[in-house]
Design a protein that fits this description.
Elements lengths: L1 H16 L1 H22 L1 E2 L3 H4 L5 H13 L5 E6 L3 H16 L5 E5 L17 H13 L1 H9 L3 H17 L2 H4 L4 H22 L8 H4 L1 H6 L13 E7 L6 H18 L7 E5 L1 H35 L3 H24 L2 E2 L6 H25 L4 H28 L7 H31 L15 H7 L2 H7 L2 H19 L4 E2 L11 H13 L6 E5 L2 H12 L4 E5 L9 H15 L12 H22 L6 H19 L2 H28 L13 H7 L6 E7 L6 H14 L4 E2 H35 L2 H22 L6 E2 L5 H26 L6 H19 L7 H38 L7 E2 L5 E2 L6
Parallel strand pairs: 1-6, 7-12
Antiparallel strand pairs: 2-4, 2-5, 3-4, 8-10, 8-11, 9-10, 13-14
Helix pairs in contact: 1-17, 1-18, 2-15, 2-18, 5-13, 6-24, 7-8, 8-25, 10-26, 10-27, 13-14, 14-15, 14-16, 14-33, 15-16, 15-18, 16-17, 16-18, 16-33, 17-18, 17-30, 17-32, 20-34, 21-31, 21-34, 25-26, 29-30, 30-31, 30-32, 31-32, 31-34, 32-33, 32-34, 33-34
Length: 921
Amino acid sequence: MKRVGRALRAVVRLCCRHPILTVGAGIGLAALSVWITLARLSFETSQLHLLPPGQPYVTRYRDYSKDFGELDEIIIAVRGRTLRESQAFASRLVRELQAGPIAFNHLAYRVALDDFGGRTLLYLPAAALRELREQVFDHQEFIESFVAAPGLVRLLEGANRQFASVFASHFLDLGLQDDATAVDLRFLTTLVTQIREAISHPTLEKTPWGAMLPIAESYEDAGYFVSDDKQLLFLLADPVGGSGGFTNDRAAIDEIRARIVELRAEFPGIEAGVTGGPALANDEMRIAFQDSRLATGLAFALTLGLLLLAFRRLREPLVMLAVLALSLVWSLGLITVTVGHLTVFSVMFISIVVGLGIDYGIYVLFRWDEEVMLGSSPAAALDLMAIRTGPGILLGALTAAATFYVLTVTDFHGVQELGFVAGSALITSFVAMLTVFPALLVLIPRRPLAGPPSPSGHPAALERADVPFVEFLTRHPTTVLVGASILTVFSLWSARMIGFDYNLLHLQANGTESVMWERHIIETQSRSSFAGLSSATSLAELQRKLEAFKQLPSVAGVDSALLFIPEDQPAKSKVIGDIRPLIAPLRVGLVPRLDLTRLTGELEALERRVDLAVIEAGAGRPSPELGTIRSGLADVLRALRTTNPVRAQAGLTLYQTHLVRDFTEKLRFLQRNLEPRSVTIADVPAELRRKFISESGRFLLQIHPKVDVWDREGAIQFVNELRSVDADVTGTPVISYESIRRMEDAYRRGALYAFILVTIISGVMIRRLRETVLALTPLVLGTLWAIGLMHLFGLKLNLANVWGVPLIIGASAEYGLNVVTRVIEARAYGGPSFARSTIMAVAFNGLSTITGFGSLLVAHHRGIWSLGLLLTCGSLTSLVAALVVLPVLIRLQFGRDGTRSNHRRPSRDGHGCIVHSPSAS
């Protein structure tokens, strides 16, 4: 350690001899770092980047992105009071976005079946087509009669004839209604209800034709991206430039959310929000960045308060903080040049380093103050600080930085970058505190002492160098060690009950929009918005994989190009051919003027038939539908007799127009699709081909999970089952699963490597086994106690705070090391073992570290908050172990005489320079 001390003394002397040059160089380097950072630093949100490069599932995902376009799109979820309302909102939102400043590759909320050129009926189930054929056969005369003279009167004439036919066949009186009869009754119920409403307050709502022509009705909702329960409608957005870039995604997501807010006044019953992979990553990075700025500002403010409390003056603490800020700017420049970006892991490094990096300046200032108080000149005090305290400061910096750097040997890329970024920032902080800070201490005039300095060997000086609290603890070793043992046993017992939360959604801030809507999708659709991905090189392989994936218990559905190829096309074409001669020749005639007298007569005739049907059915078992129709007809006739004829005529005419228009649209839809050609892969529209068929002819399969892939059990089941069909499967669920698995392995390795590295560095620097073990004791006890206390706080380990364990090791290693190195110095050169400057420096360094870590508790990101809580607990417990347990162990090992056997201090010449005696060297 002597050689290290002499080397540090040489550096400090050089900086103090040329202070202006040293400070100027530091400021110049900071200015260069600012320029580089503003020009080149970016933010990386892609989960792919966090994984080690070259992994097969990452390579395949990138290949799929090139072949099929953006695979992880922005999802806009819409929930209205009705599906029609959601459809209207989605249509309006698309128009607003297309007219806005953000360009999109596509904005889609439905697949328009009209794009398939008159072959829409082929996409309907065969059973539904057969039902349509039966409806057309059963109601052929009724439909042809209405087409000839479409109007309400002709419609009621046909209904009367149809009702009379059904009644004559004795279906109604026996209560043995078949499907056709049930359709008739639904048709009549809807028709009577809407006629009544049209008389007094006409509204343009769905007509009764949906009961008679259900396929045409269902077509209106066909092709929309909706959840299984029809509660959510989805709109997919892909901004130009592709998703995955933080800046590009942020602009698109902000624009979408702004348009949603603007449309709320027009659509008050609509709820809508943005989610999907890009939105989740964007929201997480945005919140983490905001938390970082808030935590950094709070860390600086609280650290300044601690420094003012420690040194009882303002100038030197402000200078120390300025030097720390300077070093952080250096580190940003270094990070920009070497890494080029920050991730959600590394963005919080500044607030972490504030609490650790300030430690080195505190050690410098405490020792400098001590030596000046004992009579040294400012330059000589810095000289002695460098050679005596410098090695301990360097040892603390190396151990802290090493525990970060050791993370670079893990195979998780995001953790590797975190280790390099934080470790480099700590090294720059150490360099600044041993170069720029001493130079500034020389430049600024020192406030004169209130009285003459005490001679180095004077009892008053030695008394001021002691710490009464520590001396009191060393006189009661049994009490201290028993208390430490109880806490250790409790921690060992409590550590068994600590759980692990693998759900990445639980890490984000409460109320995050993208997380809330992702949860809504899982709840309403029983599947995540993310899908596994596989591919096939031929239609046969595509069909085989499709069927195999569908059989898996964890799979909710599979999307592929085959989704657009109808099944059983020959059989469906046969059914459509049966319908064609009945529907194709129909031409809708002119709508006659509504005759209220004839309309009233038809309603009265229908009422009489319904009354007879009820009587025939018997009092004990009339059909509920007949009762509804009977009361409705009575109400309609009463309204016609009491309502102003002009008003009734206007309302019913409007309703008749709407009724005829709706029928005409449904009839034309059927006629357009009566001569379908078979659909092949070549017929898939270009926009859909791009998503599922590459230019090279490769087919994509999107496998949607039925289980919650955010939970560990669901992810394991889903990924393992997919790999049982295709070992090369990829996609966001697979990437997340691999990320979690590698992060688990990385944090275990990181904690083990950190402890081994700290032990090696401590052993090499101290070169004494017993002292090395003592120096590491607070680290071991503090880490164990912190893990044990997690259970009391209800804190679980998660994929953000697991890095707290190696960080606790790195942050707390310096406590014991500085105490032990001062004990070694006391044994060699005299003076108190537990010198006041060292104990106070360790105490305030611990508090500053706690302050830096504690500032993370203001974070809204729950993962960062939990990391801050764990680090705060770890730093606090390690500090307690270093200041309470370690002095007792040292006193038991060396005895009171052994640690204060020599109170001599090195003498100084007339200029305040150190003169070593033979016994002291």
